[in-house]
Specification:
The chain is mostly beta strands and 171 residues long. The chain is built from two helices and 13 strands, in the order ββββββαβαββββββ. It has helices at residues 75-79, 95-103, and strands at 8-18, 23-27, 41-45, 48-52, 54-61, 64-69, 85-89, 108-111, 115-124, 131-135, 141-145, 151-155, 159-162. The strands form two sheets. The protein has a seven-stranded antiparallel sheet with strand order 4-3-7-1-2-6-5. A six-stranded mixed sheet has the order 11-10-9-8-13-12, with no helix packed on it. The chain is elongated.
Length: 171
């Protein structure tokens, strides 16, 4: 299988090994749990993309995951990939949506009717229904689903204005 680097986007990089059974820790700006990997991803080894299939993905922190690739089953094999970039075909994922999700961390969240709600400090990754975790000034947290239709205005890394359905904020 040959692939052009220009037909891919950088998914992340391999940070270090995890355990002795070939698992690796990937650092990424993407939420891997929202992506579907029916095709291989590519590990860039000596400048060449090498296809590998993801067998398991486990969230470690917001920006890192423990992954298991098929056919990499020892720590020795895994070490060969540490420091390598990982690419995914552009057509294999809605990475624009994932970019949006990662850009809401740390920004002000406003509602059209209620005004300033707080600052988004994370994303709760529920399959098919990611939630913004919003820290309010009073110390409480709000969990608001990320729904495209609710977004009125979005300025990356600064603020998002939502039109939340009636009653959502009183839950």
């Amino acid at each position: 299988m040959s692939v052009k680097v220009s037909d891919c986007f950088k998914l992340g990089s391999i940070h270090k090994t995890h355990g002795v059974s070939g698992r690796l820790i990937i650092k990424t700006d993407y939420n891997l749990e929202l992506l579907e990997f029916e095709e291989p991803v590519f590990v860039v080894v000596d400048g060449l993309p090498v296809p590998v299939f993801l067998e398991e993905i486990t969230e470690r922190t917001f920006d890192s995951y423990i992954v298991k690739f098929e056919l990499i089953d020892t720590i020795e094999k895994a070490r060969e990939f540490v420091g390598c970039d990982i690419l995914a075909p552009k057509h294999s994922a809605n990475h624009e949506r994932i970019d949006f999700i990662t850009q809401v961390i740390g920004i002000e969240v406003h509602d059209k009717k209620h005004g300033f709600l707080g600052v988004c400090n994370g994303i709760e990754t529920i399959p098919g229904n990611p939630l913004m975790i919003i820290n309010q000034e009073n110390g409480n947290q709000l969990f608001i689903p990320i729904v495209d239709e609710w977004v009125i205005d979005f300025t990356p890394s600064k603020r998002i204005v939502l039109n939340c359905p009636q009653g959502l904020l009183s839950l």
